[in-house]
């Protein structure tokens, strides 16, 4: 047992770390949900022509991704770091908190989009830069208001993906111990995001929408390829994060936290 001062220092660093990681996780997860309404071309971003592949019949497949996918890797990394230092209890807690706030944000957006727009707001924002008539209220609704299917699909996929991620991560940690961070981090991400990629599109556009299963599978495959490719490429950032956190915590505190996290006996 350490002294009272040592225990206080340990708890303070532990709390501060969880607040910082939770802030990163919460901010990026919510932001990804909000900007996810925009679909962009991966090929055109790189200055190349769309692939135009034919898959599952005559369905043409290009590398189109949601804008939210750009920052989801930050969520992956943060999830794995929280898992490493705070265990599955820490990941579950921040995941459910984030899901609540995502639902809250969707609810608020749904309410404000039906508010009558002020006449001057409509007038000062039309025409657009090219001189075309422009309804800014319609644009606001199209960008921010998402359908019920997308909301349900996003929340379901998010929670399911997080719970699967923490489960696989801890299983791999029991095998690897404190070594091979890349294996448990990448392995858990590959499994969880495979489920996530199909669940969100399946619920949003197959169950509640009018997509065929071929369309769902095609787009889900592209999203998954992107996610696991980025997860692998960002492995050095994961090690950098661990290095910086270990320096902040100190070797003894870092080891104590990771041991408690692996044995599932610790949380704030």
Write the layout of secondary structure elements.
Layout: H1 4-35, E1 39-41, H2 42-45, E2 53-54, E3 60-61, E4 64-66, H3 72-112, H4 119-124, H5 136-144, H6 148-176, H7 181-207, H8 213-233, H9 235-249, H10 251-263
Antiparallel strand pairs: 1-4, 2-3
Describe this structure in words.
This protein is mainly α. The protein has one domain. Helices cover 74% and strands 4% of the residues. β2 (53-54) and β3 (60-61) form a beta hairpin. It is globular, with a radius of gyration of 22 Å. The model has no long low-confidence stretch (mean pLDDT 84).
Features:
mainly alpha; two-stranded antiparallel sheet; 4 strands; 268 residues
- The whole-number mean of residue pLDDT values reads 84
Give a count of the beta strands, DSSP E runs of length 2 or more. Answer: 4
Strand content: under 5%
Structural class: mainly alpha
From the alpha-carbon coordinates, what is the Rg to the nearest angstrom?
22 Å
Separation of termini?
18 Å
- Low-pLDDT runs: none
Query: How would a crystallographer describe the biggest sheet?
Result: 2 strands, antiparallel
What's the structural domain tally? 1
The rough form would be described as globular
Fraction of residues in helices? over 70%
Number of contiguous helices? 10
Secondary-structure element order, N to C? HEHEEEHHHHHHHH
Q: Taking strands numbered 1, 2, ... along the chain, how are they ordered across the largest sheet? A: 1-4
Short description:
The chain is mainly α and 268 residues long.
